Amino acid sequence: MDTTEQEEVLLPLKTNYQGYVAWGEYPHNFAAVLGQEECYRLILAKGGNHDFQDINGNTVAHILVVFDNMKMFDMAVECGAAINIENKMGLTPLTMAAYLARMDMFFHIASIEREVYWQIGNVTCSAYPLKYLDTIHSETGELQVNSALNLIVFGPNLDLIEYVIVDLLNVKYKSFIRKVFMRQFIVFLCFLLLSVFVFVTRPGPPPSTRPCDFNATALMYSNSTDLNSTLLGRVGLDVEGSGMDLVGSGLDYVLENLTDFLSLLETNSNATAGLLLNSNSSSTNSTSLKKVSGKKCKIPEDEKDYCYLQSYETTFEQVRVGCEMVLVVWSLGYLLSALHELSFLGWKMFKENLGMCPSRCLFLTACFLCLICVPARIFCYSGLEDRLSICIMGFTGFYMLFFCRGFKLVGPMVIMIYRMLAQDLAKFGIVFFIFLMAFSQALYMVFQSFHFTTENDELAAKILENQGNCPSGEEDCLENPMPTPIESIIMAFMMSNGDLDGVWQSLPFTSHALIGKIHWALFVMIVYLLLLNLLIAMMGDTYAKTVLITERGIAPKERLRQQDAYCDINSFGEKALVMKQFLSDEKVEEINEIIEMKITHRKNIDRRRAKFGYESVSKMGLNMVGASVIVPDSSDGTEPENPYEDEPTINKSALMGDFEQ
Q1: 3-state secondary structure (DSSP) of residue 661
Q2: pLDDT of residue 383
Q3: Is domain 1-113+584-649 classified as CATH 1.25.40.20?
Q4: Could you say which of 54, 230, 520, 528 would form a disulfide bridge with 25 (CB–CB 3.0 to 4.6 Å)?
Q5: For residue range 35-64, what is the model confidence (pLDDT) as tens digits?
Q6: So where are the chain's domains?
Q7: Which pLDDT tens digit goes with each residue over 110-153?
């Protein structure tokens, strides 16, 4: 970005280095980008330094990676260009190739940096430096977000997960990631089984209603003979002695003393309905008390038992409560582990980690909700605890998807689901929502004129008695499928899932049947057939991210200890990954060319230091000092060209004399 307040150009913090004139700001960079090898060598002979950095911190090696020019890159390295200088984003040419997904350039630079120990035919033993390749810092054990492995695995192009990257992932997985991953899987599986036992065996809430003891017109009481006698005796009636069957004046006496009946029923909680006081008389003056069988009344709020979960009387309830306590402590342990991980990862990387594993984010939420259940249990908020338990069980199960990614049988399916939810489903949802809103509101306007008519007089009479609504159980009666705008959206969504018959059969009973059928047909063709099949077509590296996500949860000291276990030390005293490889004939020939390049590289660095005093940070070729120099331009037997030697003095007189002769 240009500004009038200062001369220096303001650059974005992150860039892809693409541009029409982003050629590195130095003449030798321009020559390299344009492929002018002679011009490049001439600039170096006149004192050009190919390790100079532009405003982005890029050297000529970085620029040639951006433009993916491998031929000029090899020429620059041969002339002494360093490939271990970091730019302002902390990227070397190797990591920049990973960042920009330059596949051929990345593996070519990795081949240049490796150190070949021995070669027998097509079998080689090589050491790849881990300083910029591995995600673990070689000295501190901290995570390197700008490492090649991290940029490739979490970058846009997973095609670079080949060769040395695959070998490095396998070494890390076999050395310590597999053990950590399986331990986490077993621990979570036990947690899941325990949570299932705890929540499945929870007692349900007590009923909110109970049989009505009495009301204004009915009296319910026990069908026990002793209790009946007691009740009647309290109001002065002798059932056995008087021979009364509770009719006539005797029943009137009972009704007059109804208050005593009620007070006795309230003191006897075992009173139940069962006896019907019935009058055998047909007299119009007689009064009968009718039995109310099965009628329910709401239990008053002050009589409800909200602490039913605090019942620990039986052995089974005591075992369940013990398991609940273990589950709460276990959930707290998961949260403390996440906080410990946050302490050494930092908020940015921790948030990125949760974003790549949404199921873990839900699981940690479930652990937090499990802790909230404790005060809810203490203060008898049983309804709140039930709602929290539903969320806990729903969120906990999804965490199993993370561990499924580590198994080849189901890993690709889980990756596909994650990718669909994060990318494809979001794009599809936007387009689907637009069509859904458009068609639902159009069909709602069509069904505003809906009026069901029938030739069945009996059905028409029932509809009229039911205030224009279809009576229950009548299959021949159709109701308005879209009576409100909200219900029209819901119905349109159901149509997209295949429920098409209801709307189609209701269209003839509207005033706009033709245009409604046209909208129905367009909806079926566009939404139901086209968009849903497009979504299926869009759903189209299993354990690489799982390895690195698991690695991020390990403390730096432990990561450094594990790195020391799977790496070796190369001739420069740096950590390296030693591998035995079977190479093709083309790759074997490339090894010989790289050895020649390294020898020439070191010789040219020494020449530049001697003439211009330039120092280089490159270590390439230091272990090949005693080797002979073999360069491409000496294949005809002549002396190799030295671009840094002094210009020869020209004897003009001798030259003129030769010309005169």
Answers
A1: coil
A2: 85
A3: yes
A4: 54
A5: 888 899 898 888 888 888 888 888 999 999
A6: 1-113+584-649, 141-206+305-406, 209-303, 425-538
A7: 999 988 888 888 888 888 999 999 999 888 888 888 899 988 88
Residue 446 buriedness (CB in 10 A; 0-12 / 13-18 / 19+)? buried
Instruction: Please tell me the distance from the alpha carbon of residue 556 to that of residue 563, in angstroms, as a whole number.
Output: 10
CA distances from 578 to 166, 243, 545, 567 (A): 13, 110, 23, 7
Q: Which residue carries 């069962």 as its tokens?
A: 274
Distance from chain centroid for Cα 526: 30
pTM: 0.62
User: Taking a C-beta distance cutoff of 8 angstroms, is the pair 150, 135 a contact?
Assistant: yes
The structure tokens 């009647």 sit at 232
Q: For 384-398, 453-467, 570-584, which range has the lowest pLDDT when averaged over its residues?
A: 453-467
Of 74, 89, 82, 86, residue with least CA distance to 16? 89
In the structure encoding, which two tokens stand for residue 155, read together?
């970058």
* Burial of residue 29 (number of CB atoms within 10 Å: 0-12, 13-18, 19+): buried
Gap between the Cα atoms of 407 and 313, Å rounded:
45
Give the separation between CA 465 and CA 452, rounded to whole angstroms: 15
SS (H, E, C) 8-28: CCCCCCCCCCCCCCCCCCCHH
Residue with tokens 């970091």: 86
Q: Residue 358 and residue 421: Cα distance in Å, rounded?
A: 11
